[in-house]
């Protein structure tokens, strides 16, 4: 009963406009979903009790640990070919090293999100150290994207490395209005595998789940090589891509310390 009501609510809600696509056979972006931290403070069933309000066969594509040439560009090319928009959780050090690539990701309409400065396991360091690394990462991403170093993110989306959160760090981010992302489907592309092996693994997991937030890593060569075939699989199997963006909130101008 509740599941039916939720599906009806999703279907009834008018989607924000998705980008038009010139290629008629492209997968495309089905709709845009605006979310806020009050309603969805933590999402992803592999880590938290709730996920995003997706209908059956709707997926959100997310990529961690970039930007990293040449593989981020290869992923971007595959997404562009299919007129698909995704969310990129960036490591601050990489953003500082490749700011033009950060701007390129944003210029193609993708969402820029955050993934710390130095990729530490935040559960193994103090809360003060974790806050510093989170803030340094946000500041580096913002500098690359907007030319201003600030610790209030333009897009308040964050993902922990290894999903290694703690109650204190979760509370810290929630107090700042930052949504924490887990995932619903893992590609496990941090492991050594071929592109074909990854495609078989992630499509099997997705078909078992039926929908959800999918986690990839764009600096991985096998993920970049696999992405065109994976997007074709989504198209041919009736999946629809949802692009996530932050809901409009007032006074996102001043830094929060």
TrEMBL record:
Name this polypeptide is given: Chitooligosaccharide deacetylase
Annotated ranges, domain NodB homology: 57-242
Entries under InterPro entries matching the protein: Glyco_hydro/deAcase_b/a-brl (IPR011330), NODB_dom (IPR002509), Polysacc_deacetylase_ArnD (IPR050248)
Superkingdom as given in the UniProt entry: Bacteria
Molecular function GO labels: hydrolase activity, acting on carbon-nitrogen (but not peptide) bonds; metal ion binding
UniProt GO cellular component terms: membrane
Keywords from the UniProt entry: Hydrolase, Metal-binding
Family: Belongs to the polysaccharide deacetylase family.
Annotated function: Is involved in generating a small heat-stable compound (Nod), an acylated oligomer of N-acetylglucosamine, that stimulates mitosis in various plant protoplasts.
Transmembrane segments: none
One GO term of the biological process aspect: carbohydrate metabolic process
